[in-house]
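Collaborator request, handled under Task 6.
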Amino acid sequence: MEWNSVLALGAATVRLTVSAASDVGNVRPINEDSFLAGPSVFLVADGMGGHAHGDRASAAVARVFAARHERETTTNSPAVLASIAEANLAVRALTPSDAQDDAIAGTTVTGIALLEPPAGGSANWIAFNVGDSRIYSWHAGRLEQVTVDHSAVQELVDLGQITRAEAEVHPERNVVTRAMGVDDDPDADVWLIPAGGQQLFVLCSDGLTKELSDARIAQILSESTTDPIATRLVDAAVAAGGHDNVTVVVVQAEWDDSVQNESAKPSLMPAFLEETAPRK
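Structure tokens returned to the collaborator:
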């Protein structure tokens, strides 16, 4: 799917182009991924493989966000935080009280939402992440991973015990350390990204990054074609092996020159949550 819109936000105008695609891949019997592609919130959720109701868990997250934000073109930080909490409760409700560990419903979620700018201020994106699905940014020919994986191998990388290359083949590479539905508090990373210029965000389940290197993703993003970016990324991952479900949402934003991020006014984001920005 792909859609376009033009929004006037205070003194600024933004042109949005959004594409989304999902594929079951070549191995898994069902697709446990879900996504939401706007109008104000964009997310990817990857149901935990090997756990009960992974497909229902990811769908529950998308359903909660869709219901809370379906009539919005922009949102606000408290609404996004409330959606995370409600979605976590919805996933927890899928697990019977006497369930064993391997029967706990769970899912990752990673997403961004466009915030209504405060009076006289500039717009921001709010980003959020639980698990090992990812957000990338693409700017001036450079791909950067915005989120930090909540995974066992990422912790080993942070400790300097293994390299990133070793993490890709480590036997615990599929073990996530945070997930929606597992605890009362999903402990999401939540932070702000200033809006402005030309921005492109890639939201993806790990079915993409298991098959395509960052260099390959960057190559696809740099190609000149009219085909939706999300579709091209998903098709490439499936062609490369498709060992897992693959889901991608791509958000492109082109802001006019009136957006001045350096003079942005304070947002409604609680200060303690801004400190949860991913590690660099």
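The cover message to the collaborator said: "Residues 2-261 form a domain with the Phosphatase 2c; domain 1 fold (CATH 3.60.40.10). The chain has one domain: 2-261. Please let us know whether this matches your experimental observations."
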